[in-house]
TrEMBL record:
The keyword Transmembrane applies. It comes from Actinomycetospora corticicola. It holds the Pfam family DUF389. This is Putative hydrophobic protein (TIGR00271 family). Keywords: Membrane, Transmembrane, Transmembrane helix. The chain crosses the membrane at residues 116-135, 141-163, 175-193, 213-235, 242-264, 276-296. PANTHER family: AT15442P-RELATED (PTHR20992:SF9). The keyword NAD does not apply. InterPro entries: DUF389.
Length: 313
C-alpha cells in the first residue's frame, strides 16, 4: 500500500473527505483540521491500495488540490491491519502490477538530470569498460555495465515520448547528449595518459578476443536491447527495482562507449565506428521497447486524467 497525505484548502476538505471515504481501496483515513500552515489548510491522510492510487491522485488533481494544496505519496513497507487487507482485496488486480504514473514521472524525471553524480558514474563506467577492453577482461566489462547509470535517462525518454512530456524528453536527451561524449573524451584521454605513464600498453584490438561481443553488431544486438528495455520498464512500473541490475548487465551501452574510446586512440576506426553503432542500436532499442511497454500498460489500466496530468509541464 501507499500512504497518501493531502494538504487541502479548508473549503474543499469535506468534499475530499467524502470522496476518500467512498473510494474502494482506501483505509486508515485521518483528518487534522487547520494542521497545515503553508499552504494554509487541513491535513488528510489515507493508506491506499497501489491499484487504486492512480484514480485517487487523478480525483484529487481534478479538485485542484495539487495547485492550491499539496499531495505526497509514500510507500508503506509493512502494514498490519485487517482494514488494509480488506481495502487491497476490494480492488481488482495485484499491487505489484499496478502502475502509479505520477510516481513514475517523478522518478524518471529525477534520474534523467545531467547531475554531477550522473556524469561521474557514466564516466567511471566507461573507464572501467576501457580497462576491460585493454586487459581483455569480460568480468571488468560486466562491472562497467552495473555501474552505468544510463537507464535512468533512457526510461525518462520513453516516459516523455509516451506522455508527450517535452520537458522530460529534453532533459533526458541533454543528459545522454552530454554524458556519453564527456565519458568518451575522458576515457580516450585517460587511455593515452595511462600508456604514456607506462601503466598499460595499448596494443591492436585483435588480441582482445574475449570482449569482441562489444563491437560486433548483429540481429541479437537489437533483440537484447528490446528485451532489456521491456524488462527495465516493467521493473520500474511494478516496483521491482532489483530486476534493473539484470537489465544493466544485459546491454552493452557503456562497454560500447569505452571500446570506441580505446579504438579511437589506436586509430582503429572500423572498430570505433562499429562500437558506436552498437551503442546507437542499444539506446534506440531500449527506448523503443520501454515506450511500447508503457503504451501497453496505458491501455491495460484504466486511468482517469492520465493524459491531462502527463501533458502538464
Amino acid at each position: 500500500m501507499l500512504h497518501v497525505r493531502v494538504v487541502c484548502p479548508a473549503d474543499r476538505t469535506d468534499e475530499v473527505l467524502a470522496y476518500l471515504r467512498g473510494t474502494t481501496g482506501t483505509a486508515h483515513l485521518t483528518l487534522a483540521r487547520g494542521a497545515s500552515i503553508a499552504p494554509a489548510g487541513d491535513l488528510l491522510g489515507a493508506d491506499v491500495a497501489r491499484e487504486a492510487v492512480d484514480d485517487v491522485l487523478a480525483a484529487l488533481c481534478d479538485r485542484g488540490i495539487d495547485r492550491d494544496g499539496g499531495i505526497t505519496v509514500e510507500p508503506l513497507e509493512t502494514v498490519l491491519s485487517d482494514a488494509a487487507d480488506r481495502a487491497e482485496e476490494a480492488v481488482p488486480g495485484l499491487g505489484s502490477d499496478a502502475v502509479v504514473w505520477d510516481e513514475l514521472v517523478g522518478r524518471t524525471g529525477e534520474e534523467s538530470q545531467a547531475s554531477a553524480s550522473f556524469l561521474a558514474l557514466l564516466t567511471i563506467a566507461c573507464l572501467l569498460a576501457a580497462i576491460g577492453v585493454v586487459t581483455n577482461s569480460p568480468v571488468t566489462v560486466v562491472g562497467a555495465m552495473v555501474v552505468g547509470p544510463e537507464f535512468g535517462p533512457l526510461a525518462a525518454l520513453a516516459v516523455g515520448l509516451v506522455g508527450r512530456r517535452t520537458d522530460l524528453t529534453g532533459r533526458a536527451l541533454r543528459a545522454l547528449g552530454l554524458g556519453f561524449p564527456l565519458a568518451l573524451v575522458v576515457t580516450a584521454g585517460a587511455a593515452v595518459l595511462a600508456e604514456a605513464a607506462g601503466l598499460v600498453s595499448l596494443s591492436p584490438l585483435e588480441s582482445a578476443d574475449q570482449v569482441d561481443f562489444i563491437y560486433q553488431v548483429g540481429p541479437f544486438s537489437l533483440i537484447v536491447a528490446l528485451l532489456a528495455g521491456a524488462a527495465g520498464m516493467l521493473a520500474m512500473t511494478s516496483a521491482k527495482s532489483a530486476a534493473l541490475v539484470g537489465v544493466f548487465i544485459s546491454v552493452t551501452t557503456v562497454p560500447a562507449a569505452g571500446y570506441a574510446a580505446v579504438a579511437a586512440t589506436l586509430s582503429d576506426w572500423p572498430r570505433c565506428l562499429s562500437s558506436l553503432a552498437q551503442l546507437a542500436v542499444n539506446l534506440v532499442g531500449i527506448v523503443a521497447a520501454a515506450a511500447a511497454v508503457l503504451l501497453l500498460r496505458t491501455r491495460t489500466y484504466r486511468r482517469r486524467g492520465l493524459g491531462r496530468r502527463l501533458s502538464e509541464g
